[in-house]
Structures are given as C-alpha cells and as structure tokens.
Amino acid sequence: MATTKSKKAPSKTNRPRGAIRKKANVNSSPTRARRTTTRRVPWEHLGHPSTGVVVTGGASGIGEACALHLAEAGRPVAIWDIDKKGAERVADECAARFRVPTIGLGLDVSKSKGFAAALSSSLKALGQIGGLVHAAGIAGAVQVTMLDDESWDAVLDVNLRAAAILTKELTPSLLDAGPGSAIVYLSSIEAFFGHDFLPAYSASKAGLLGLTRSAAHTLGPHGIRVNAVCPGAVDTPLLAPLLEIEGQRADLERRTPLQRLAVPDDIAKVVRFLLSDEAGYVSGASLVVDGGLTAISGI
Ligand SMILES: NC(=O)c1ccc[n+]([C@@H]2O[C@H](COP(=O)([O-])OP(=O)(O)OC[C@H]3O[C@@H](n4cnc5c(N)ncnc54)[C@H](O)[C@@H]3O)[C@@H](O)[C@H]2O)c1
C-alpha cells in the first residue's frame, strides 16, 4: 500500500523553527489582565476557617507559639491563662502583628466556674469560636511515694479535667461556628513512658489520649474533630528545671535522632495544621512530635 506523507500544518507565523518566541503583552489579554487584579489569599490562611480559637496556657511556651501561628493564619485568638499580664501581652502582640481580633484573659483553668464568663467575653471579642487548644499545663514533680490528694489533684485538674470541662463548655460555640471546628489537646510523650518524678503528669497526659478518643467519638458526627499532640522535649519554662541539671540538655540532644530539642514553633505548626481544613479527615489521633525520641527511647 502506498504511504502518503502527512501534510504539514501551515505555520501561523513566519517565525523560523527554534526562534525565541516574542513575549506576549500581558496587558493585551483580557483574561490575563483580570488575573493580575485577583486578590491572592496569603498561603498561611489557606485551609483555615475564619473562626476564633481559644488557647489556654497561651501566655508562654507552646501555647504562646500556637496563638501567634494561628493569628498569622488569620484566626482571631482568645488567650486564657492564669498569668493575666502574659495573656494580655500575647493577645496584644497577635493583634499588632497580624491584625486579628484578640482578647487576653486571666483565668485559672482548674476552676471550671470561670469558664462561662471567659467564653462570653471571648465570643464578644472574636465573634465566633471554632477552635480550642488546651496548652495550659503544669508538671508537679512529686514521686508516687510522696503524693497526697492535693498534689495529685493540682496536676490532674489543670492538665486533664480542664480539657474535659472546657470541651463540654465550648461545644455549643464550636457547633455554632459550623464546619471546620476542631480541638487540640497538648498531651506529651510522657503519656507513653513512666517517669520517676512525674506520676501525676504522666497519668494526666495518658488520660488526655483517652479523652481525645472519646470526645472524637461523641463530636465527630457533629463535624467537630478532636486530636492530641504529644511533644517530646521542648525548650520552654516548663522544662527549665530539668534542663538546668548539668548535662541534661546535651544528653537529650544526643539521644534525640534529630539531635536538638524542639522549640515551641515546632509544635505550634503541627497544632495549626490540626486546626485547619488540611487535617479535615484527622480525628481521634495522637500525633507524636518529638524529633524521633520515642522511636528509640523516652525522656
Ligand atoms: N515543654 C515540654 O517539653 C513539653 C513536652 C510535652 C508536653 N508539653 C505540654 O505542653 C503544654 C504547654 O507547656 P509549655 O512547655 O509551653 O509550658 P509553659 O510553662 O511555658 O506554659 C504553660 C502555660 O500554662 C499556664 N498555666 C499553668 N497553670 C494554669 C492554670 N491553672 N490555668 C491557666 N493557665 C495555666 C502557665 O501560666 C503558662 O503560661 C503543657 O500542657 C505541657 O504539659 C510540654
């Protein structure tokens, strides 16, 4: 059968092959002109609902970093901390740097009766509340043989009971705020390891994982996600007493596969992710953020 050579499509221009194409005049194209005037959403706002977030323990360390990262993502923030001045300072910084509505309140989260008033002022200041980060926490270093009711309750009330009661108190607001509402509890890798001086702390952090799963079960059908973050060693005032012991910092750095302690930003970025729609199918999870420490040992 005779083959026929396909005819070359006629060239639309007389430009020789390989010649550099003349740059189109972008302003001559109506589509392009329209595109250049479209307002771009800053990357850090992507996937974030515009609703406010309550951050307990937001006056220091991980909570403070969470408040700043959430504000950077365009979210109004309410800082609830027993340190009133610290809460106000962080609220002011979030407002000044990221121009979001904020409020800083002095509140002891171990006293549930203060929650209703704090919530009411926060709703007034932020409009809607679609997120909770429970970062308030204390270590309460006492060996099990030295424990009494008071020292046990002090740790459990702040670290665990407050998380549960806050969840209950904030649920109506999270539901009102609509799809995308989410909760993150700051647990710890101590949830998985025993520690000579931290029995109450370890128990509270392990308890938070149980609370995470149960609350995810109850709130999931209503579109509210609940997750826990389990940091390793983070360089904050909470860890200072341990890090002041000679050789401890270097030892922790050496034993961590990533060869450094975490800074609060390392944890806040994960919390911010869990509160965003990017994590829209993550619920009931416990996310370890420890530079690889629990892959080989504990603190
Ligand atoms: N630093 C670490 O290595 C580490 C590791 C794992 C988990 N965590 C957890 O992360 C969370 C934040 O810890 P951090 O390291 O940022 O500590 P931090 O001491 O820097 O901050 C804790 C904040 O909680 C506030 N707070 C304490 N008691 C309170 C109360 N009764 N009511 C309201 N606020 C109260 C404090 O004023 C402080 O601002 C804690 O839950 C902690 O257990 C920390």
Summarize the structure.
This protein has helices at 30-37, 61-72, 84-98, 115-126, 149-177, 199-219, 240-243, 248-255, 264-274, 293-296; strands spanning 52-56, 77-81, 102-106, 129-134, 182-186, 225-231, 286-289. It is of the alpha/beta class. The protein has a seven-stranded parallel β-sheet, with helices on both faces.
Structure notes:
By secondary structure, this protein is an alpha/beta fold. It has a domain at 48-231 and 266-287: Rossmann fold (3-Layer(aba) Sandwich), CATH 3.40.50. Helices cover 41% and strands 12% of the residues. The protein has a 7-stranded parallel beta sheet, sandwiched between helices. The longest helix has 29 residues, at 149-177. The protein is globular. Mean pLDDT is 89; it is low at 1-13 and 18-34.
Secondary structure layout plus pairing:
Layout: H1 30-37, E1 52-56, H2 61-72, E2 77-81, H3 84-98, E3 102-106, H4 115-126, E4 129-134, H5 149-177, E5 182-186, H6 199-219, E6 225-231, H7 240-243, H8 248-255, H9 264-274, E7 286-289, H10 293-296
Parallel strand pairs: 1-2, 1-4, 2-3, 4-5, 5-6, 6-7
Helix pairs in contact: 2-3, 2-9, 4-5, 5-6
Bound molecules: nicotinamide-adenine-dinucleotide (NAD).
